[in-house]
Amino acid sequence: MNLIQTDQINCYNPSGRIIPCKKTGQDGDTRTGTQWPCPRFIQKQDIIEDLVTGLIWPQNAALNEFPLSWQEAFDFINDMNKRRQFGLDHWRLPRRDELFSLISHSRVNPAVVGPDQFQNLFNGYYWTATPCARYPNQAWYIHMGGGRIVKGMIQSSYMVWPVNNPAAGRQSASAKEIPGSAEMRFKVADDAVSDMATGLTWMRNADIIQKPVKWGDALSTIQRINAEKHFGFNDWRLPNIRELESLTDMTVHSPAVAARKWFFSVQSFYWSSTTSVYDPSYAWTLYTEDGNIGVGFKDGADFHVWPVRTSETQDF
Fold first, then answer.
1. What is the Cα–Cα distance from 240 to 278, expressed in whole angstroms?
2. CA–CA separation, 126 vs 138, rounded Å?
């Protein structure tokens, strides 16, 4: 599996109290995804290399010192490249998924993995290079204090944390993303869609319960469909928040879901198995209209269930 784990190791009841993880089906129980190396980050003078993603980040997370508009963010990074800051000249504004790779789901303020590795982390919003498909005058930014992914006007001012990808070679700071081919990435069966980029298989029916439910009911429903061996498998699970986010496609909207033509009954709101440690009575959620990552109150019957499982070689 190419998708990295979250760092959540605890499990919680709907009121937010820590409970034993065994057989809960929560993120802290399943721990799916690629494990992190230890250490995950290597410092090289003023830059930090992430051994999980191969990305390089400035150790100083506030090089710009004060918030900038989206265009000013690109101008700032282009100036970095002219000056070959830190000896490199292919800095760029990170894509949404790249900045999200630094988010921790076990801590807040900052909600950043390995915060001691970095300097001047701001517990507020940072720009990404990813535009909003539905609103051309908006772009995505991430709250590094809590981990939410939201969109806003490009005239707004937020912090900038440039990224560098040596494996990709020379790149200019650009807002343009090149989407992958859905036909090459996904394999469709009668009842499921397998994602060859992440190693995940999703139910084609994206609303298995046909109504929104509470978080606890979402988890118990997964246990029930496994007992019934839905579509011949008993290892379905409620996806963690990284798995849910991996289904988003930022080039489309309503829904902002990759391979959306191969799914049916896609709903607007979905539960993840990942608890929000900012307030453990909430869990992380996906809003599919545009792709926002937010939270939902666990005891509110407001979100739907989209089961996932880890693909096996024969699935492909």
1. 16
2. 14
pTM of the model: 0.93
Q: Residue 203: beta bridge partners?
A: 192
Q: pLDDT averaged over the chain?
A: 92
Q: Residue 181 has what pLDDT?
A: 60
CA 233/CA 46 separation, integer angstroms: 49
| Segment 98-118, tens digit of pLDDT | 999 999 999 999 999 999 999
CB neighbourhood size of 201 (10 A)? 25
Q: How far, in Å, CA of 67 to CA of 126, rounded? A: 9
Q: Give pLDDT, residue 168.
A: 64
CATH number for the segment(s) 41-168: 3.10.100.10
Ranges in the chain annotated CATH 3.10.100.10: 41-168
Q: How, if at all, do strands 125-131 and 56-58 pair?
A: unpaired
Q: Dihedral through CA 205, CA 209, CA 210, CA 211, nearest 10?
A: -140
Mean pLDDT across 76-94: 96
Alpha helices in the chain (DSSP H): 27-30, 70-82, 96-100, 182-185, 215-227, 241-246
CATH architecture of the domain with residue range 181-315:
Roll (3.10)
Q: Nearest to residue 99, comparing CAs of 55, 132, 68?
A: 55
- Concatenating the DSSP letter of every residue in 5-18 gives P-----EE-TTS-E
